[in-house]
Specification:
The complex is a heterodimer of chains A (660) and B (164). By secondary structure, chain A is an alpha+beta fold. Chain A has helices at 2-30, 33-62, 69-74, 81-86, 92-113, 119-143, 167-196, 201-232, 243-268, 272-294, 301-306, 308-332, 347-379, 387-404, 407-410, 418-424, 426-442, 449-472, 479-488, 491-516, 621-637, 640-643; strands at residues 383-385, 518-524, 529-532, 535-546, 551-561, 564-569, 572-576, 581-585, 587-591, 594-603, 609-616. Chain B has a 5-stranded mixed beta barrel with strand order 2-4-5-7-6. Classes of the chains: A alpha+beta (660), B alpha+beta (164). The interface between A and B is large, with 78 and 60 residues.
C-alpha cells in the first residue's frame, strides 16, 4: 500500500508539474494574474506530493519491505536504522528520487519566498523549474521506478554496498544534490530573463542568494565527499581526478565564476549576457554530472550501449535542456541591453579575469573527463586520463588566478589603481617571501615547488587579511575606531575575506600533504613496531568482534612520540556476509591539523597482517579551506543587502507586466 | 581607452588564456595518457617494455602467489591469453581470484607486467553467482538482475558508488 501511495504521489507530482510548465507561461502572455499565480500553488503542491513519495520510500526501507525491488536490492533487515534511511539514496532509483525531491524543494522555496518578485518573472521561473521537474519525473517513472514490487517477496534483502554503510552517505549525497540542483534556480532565472527579454540589476540581486546557497552546499558536499573517500577507501587519497569527482567539480568551477560575475551585474549592471550564459552553463554541467554518474556511461561505453534506456533518456534530457537553453540564448541574448563600461584594470576587470581562468580551468577538466569517452566511441581505444593530465593543465591555470585573488577586492570599480593595490599588498607580499625563505631553508635540497606554492597560499591569506585591515583602518587609526569600523563593515566583505582565505588554507593543505606525506607499508606481527615521521606505532594485538551485519577484525596499535605514549589506534577490516565483501576502516589520529592514518590489508598464513601507515602533515587544512569558503558564503548570504535589501520594484513593475 | 580598445583588450586577453590552456592540454595529452589493454591485445600487439598501460581482465583462479614482504604475483587473463603480473603492496578489498581487475604499470624485459597500482572491478549491485543460482531456483529471478550484476563493470564503479 505504501509503495503504491508513493508511486501515485509521484504521478500526481508529474501532472502538477505539467500544469505548472504551461499555464503560468500562457498567463504571462495573456497578462492574466490568476493564471500566473497558478505556478505558486502548483509548486507548493508538487513539493507536498514529492515529499509524500520520498517519505513512502524511506518508510519502505525502514520497515524492510522486501516485496519492493529497490528495498530488496539495497537493504537488509539487520542493517542499522541510520543506514536503512541513508540506503534510500545509496542506489540509482532512490538517488534520482532525492534529486527530484530537492528540485521540488527549491521550486517550493521560490514559490513561498518569492513574493517580492515581479509576478511574470516568478511565473516564468517556476514554469522553467517545472519543465526540468517534468523531465525527471518522467525519467523516474519510465526507467527508474523505485516502487516496483516483486511477485514472490524474498525473506531477506541483499544489503547495501558495505562501502556505503557509513555516516558519509547520510551527508554527502544530499549536500551535493542541494548544490547541483540548487543551480537549477539560477538556470530558471536565466531562461526566464531570456523569455521575458528583460534583465536588470534587481534580477542579479534575486539570483545571487540562490546561487550562493547552491554554491555553499556544493562546496561542503565536495569537501565532505573528498574526506569520506579519504577515510573510507583506505588508500589515504583525497582526490583522484575520477570522472565522478570531476562531474561535481565542473559545476563548482562554473558556479564560482557565476557567483563573481553576478556581483558585477548587481553592482555595475555590466556583464549581463555573460552572466546569463554562465547560469545556463553551470546547470548544464550539473545535468552533465547527473548524466555521467547515472547513465553508466563511465563504467564502460559498452555497458551503456547494451542497456541504453536510462542513459539515452538522460542524454535526451541533457540535449533538450542544454541545446534548448543555448538556442534561446543565441536567439534572445542580443535583445538584452549592455551597460556599465569599465577599464580593463578595475574591480570588474579583475572579476572578468577570475571568470576567464575559472571557466578555462573548467574546460580543461571537461576535456580530461570526456575525451576518453569520445575516443572510445570514435576509435575503440580505451585510455585513462588521470592525475598527471590534470596536474599539467588544471594547476598551471589555477596558479595565476591565485596570484590575482588578493588584488581583486582592492581595486576600485570602473577604473582601478593597480599600483595602489600592489602597495597595499606589500605586507602580504613580505609575509609570502618570508614564508618561502623559511621553508626553503628548512627543506634544503627539497623541491622548490612546495615553498613557492605555500608562499602563494600565504600571499592569498595575508592578502585577504590586509584587505580587511585596509577597510577597517587597522594600524592607521586607534584600535577602538578600527573595531567600530570592523563592526560596521558589510557582512559580504567579511564573507569575501573568509572565502578567499579559505582558498589559501586549502592550498597549504594540498601542498603539504602531497609533498611531505610519508608512508610505511609492510606486514606486521604482534609486538612489531613501525616508525614513521618520529612516531612509533606498536601492534599490540588483533581481536575479532561481531557487528550488527558484519564480522570485524580489529588491530590495536599504541602510538608513542619520543618515548611518550600518545594514544591508541584501532583500524579494522569488516566482513559483510550477505554480500561476501569486506571494507577497510582506517584509524585516524589527529594531531593539530596533521593526521596519522592506518589501514589494514590481508592477513598472511603465519599470522602477520599487511599494514599501511601514513603520516599526513596538515592534511586537515584541505577540508578546513572549503569549510572556511562555505562559512564566507554564509556570511555573505546573511548580508542585509541580500536578506532584505532586494528593493521592492516600483508599483508599475509589479502585477500586470508585459511578457516582453 | 575607447570602447573598441577596451573590447579588444578583453578579447585579446581571453584568447591568450585560451591559447595557453590549449597548449597545456595538447602537451598533457601527449605525455600523460595511459592506454587500456587486455592480455589478448598485449599478445597481439608488441608493447615495448617500460611503456605504461592499464591491463584489465580476470584474475586467473589459482594463480595468486603471496611472497615475502607483501610481494604478490598473479595472472590476468581473458578468453584468449594470460599475462603474469607482479605487484608489491596491499591488494584492494575487492580483489579476488576469478574476479575482474585493472592493474596499471609496465612490462619488464622478461615480459612480466610490473604493476604499481591495482584496482578491483566491482559493481554496487554485484551478486555472487551462488546467490544468483539460489534465487533462480526459488523463482525470484528476474532477467534485469542478471544484466546489472555482471563482473565486467569498470574500475571506477566501486568509487562511483561512494561518490554519487
Amino acid at each position: 500500500m505504501i509503495a503504491e501511495t508513493g508511486h501515485y504521489a509521484l504521478v500526481l507530482a508529474l501532472a502538477l508539474a505539467l500544469i505548472q510548465s504551461t499555464l503560468p507561461i500562457l498567463g504571462a502572455r495573456w497578462h492574466d494574474p490568476a493564471l500566473m499565480n497558478v505556478a505558486r500553488s502548483t509548486a507548493l503542491a508538487q513539493l507536498l506530493f514529492v515529499a509524500v513519495s520520498f517519505v513512502a520510500l524511506v518508510t519502505l526501507h525502514v520497515t524492510s519491505d522486501f516485496s519492493v525491488v529497490n528495498v530488496f536490492e539495497n537493504s537488509h533487515s539487520l542493517k542499522p536504522l541510520i543506514y536503512k534511511i541513508t540506503g534510500v539514496w545509496g542506489n540509482h532509483e532512490g538517488s534520482m528520487l532525492l534529486w527530484v525531491s530537492i528540485l521540488a524543494l527549491f521550486g517550493g522555496l521560490v514559490a513561498a519566498f518569492g513574493n517580492n518578485l515581479p509576478l511574470s518573472l516568478r511565473a516564468h521561473v517556476l514554469a522553467v523549474q517545472a519543465w526540468i521537474a517534468s523531465a525527471f519525473y518522467l525519467f523516474i517513472l519510465i526507467t527508474s521506478n523505485p516502487f516496483l514490487r516483486i511477485d514472490n517477496p524474498p525473506i531477506e534483502g541483499r544489503d547495501l554496498n558495505p562501502v556505503l554503510q557509513d555516516i558519509g552517505l547520510a551527508v554527502h549525497p544530499p549536500m551535493l544534490y542541494l548544490g547541483y540542483v540548487g543551480f537549477s534556480i539560477s538556470f530558471s532565472f536565466a531562461v526566464a530573463a531570456l523569455l521575458e527579454g528583460r534583465i536588470d540589476a534587481a534580477w542579479a540581486r534575486w539570483v545571487r542568494p540562490w546561487t550562493l546557497v547552491a554554491w555553499i552546499f556544493l562546496t561542503l558536499g565536495i569537501a565532505m565527499g573528498s574526506y569520506w573517500a579519504y577515510y573510507e577507501l583506505g588508500w589515504g587519497g583525497w582526490w583522484f581526478w575520477d570522472p565522478v569527482e570531476n562531474a561535481s567539480l565542473m559545476p563548482w568551477l562554473a558556479g564560482t565564476a557565476l557567483l563573481h560575475s553576478a556581483v558585477v551585474m548587481e553592482k555595475r549592471n555590466a556583464l549581463k549576457v555573460w552572466t546569463i550564459l554562465l547560469a545556463i552553463l553551470t546547470f548544464s554541467l550539473s545535468l552533465l554530472g547527473t548524466f555521467l554518474v547515472r547513465s553508466g556511461v563511465l563504467t564502460s561505453v559498452h555497458a551503456f550501449a547494451t542497456d541504453p534506456t536510462r542513459g539515452v533518456f538522460i542524454l535526451l534530457i541533457l540535449c533538450i535542456f542544454i541545446g534548448g537553453s543555448l538556442t534561446l540564448y543565441a536567439w534572445r541574448a542580443s535583445a538584452l541591453k549592455q551597460g556599465g563600461l569599465f577599464a580593463p584594470i578595475s574591480r570588474e576587470g579583475a572579476l572578468v579575469l577570475n571568470n576567464l581562468f575559472l571557466t578555462t580551468a573548467c574546460a580543461t577538466v571537461f576535456i580530461g573527463t570526456l575525451y576518453p569517452l569520445a575516443l572510445e566511441v570514435l576509435t575503440g581505444d580505451k585510455i585513462s586520463v588521470g592525475a598527471p593530465f590534470f596536474n599539467l593543465t588544471f594547476a598551471p591555470l589555477f596558479l595565476p588566478l591565485m596570484i590575482a585573488v588578493p588584488f581583486g577586492p582592492l581595486l576600485a570599480w570602473k577604473r582601478g589603481d593597480l599600483l595602489g593595490a600592489a602597495q597595499r599588498l606589500i605586507a602580504a607580499g613580505i609575509a609570502a617571501l618570508v614564508a618561502i625563505a623559511v621553508l626553503w631553508a628548512w627543506t634544503r635540497g627539497g623541491s622548490a615547488f612546495a615553498p613557492l606554492a605555500i608562499g602563494l597560499a600565504v600571499f592569498v591569506i595575508a592578502g585577504a587579511l590586509s584587505d580587511l585591515a585596509e577597510r577597517t583602518g587597522l594600524f592607521r587609526m586607534p584600535f577602538a575606531i578600527a573595531m567600530r569600523r570592523a563592526r560596521g563593515l558589510p557582512r559580504s566583505t567579511w564573507g569575501t575575506m573568509f572565502a578567499h582565505a579559505g582558498v589559501g588554507v586549502a592550498l597549504i593543505g594540498i601542498v603539504c600533504e602531497t609533498t611531505w606525506n610519508s608512508e610505511y607499508i609492510g606486514s606486521m606481527k604482534p609486538d612489531d613496531v613501525a616508525k614513521i615521521a618520529g612516531y612509533e606505532l606498536k601492534l599490540d594485538g588483533v581481536t575479532q568482534r561481531q557487528g550488527p551485519n558484519f564480522r570485524e577484525m580489529l588491530a590495536q596499535f599504541s602510538v608513542t612520540l619520543d618515548g611518550k605514549p600518545l594514544s591508541a589506534m584501532t583500524p579494522s577490516k569488516r566482513n559483510f556476509t550477505t554480500r561476501g565483501s569486506s571494507t577497510t576502516e582506517a584509524a585516524l589520529l589527529t594531531r593539530g591539523a596533521s593526521q596519522l592514518y592506518i589501514s589494514l590489508g590481508d592477513t598472511t598464513a603465519d599470522g602477520a597482517i599487511a599494514v599501511r601507515i601514513y603520516h599526513k602533515p596538515l592534511v586537515l587544512l584541505i577540508w578546513w579551506g572549503p569549510v572556511l569558503m562555505a562559512f564566507g558564503g554564509m556570511l555573505s548570504l546573511s548580508d542585509r543587502r541580500l536578506r532584505v535589501g532586494a528593493p521592492k520594484p516600483a508599483k508599475a513593475l509589479r502585477g500586470l507586466q508585459a511578457a516582453e | 581607452m575607447t570602447r573598441k580598445q577596451r573590447r579588444l583588450t578583453m578579447i585579446g586577453g581571453s584568447l591568450a588564456v585560451l591559447a595557453v590552456a590549449a597548449a597545456l592540454v595538447l602537451n598533457a595529452m601527449r605525455d600523460s595518457i595511459v592506454f587500456f589493454s587486455t592480455p589478448a591485445m598485449v599478445a597481439e600487439k608488441h608493447v615495448p617494455a617500460g611503456k605504461r598501460f592499464r591491463l584489465g581482465g580476470l584474475v586467473q583462479p589459482g594463480s595468486l602467489v603471496r611472497g615475502d614482504n607483501l610481494a604478490v604475483t598473479f595472472s590476468v587473463a581473458d578468453d584468449n591469453a594470460a599475462l603474469p603480473v607482479s605487484y608489491k603492496g596491499i591488494l584492494p578489498d575487492l580483489f579476488r581470484e576469478g574476479q575482474g581487475v585493472v592493474a596499471e604499470g609496465a612490462l619488464d624485459s622478461s615480459g612480466i607486467f610490473k604493476a604499481d597500482t591495482v584496482l578491483a572491478k566491482h559493481d554496487e549491485t554485484y551478486m555472487p553467482k551462488e546467490v544468483a543460482d539460489a534465487l533462480k531456483k526459488q523463482g525470484h529471478w528476474k532477467d534485469d538482475y542478471g544484466a546489472k550484476s555482471g563482473v565486467t563493470q569498470g574500475a571506477s564503479q566501486a568509487k562511483q558508488g561512494v561518490l554519487q
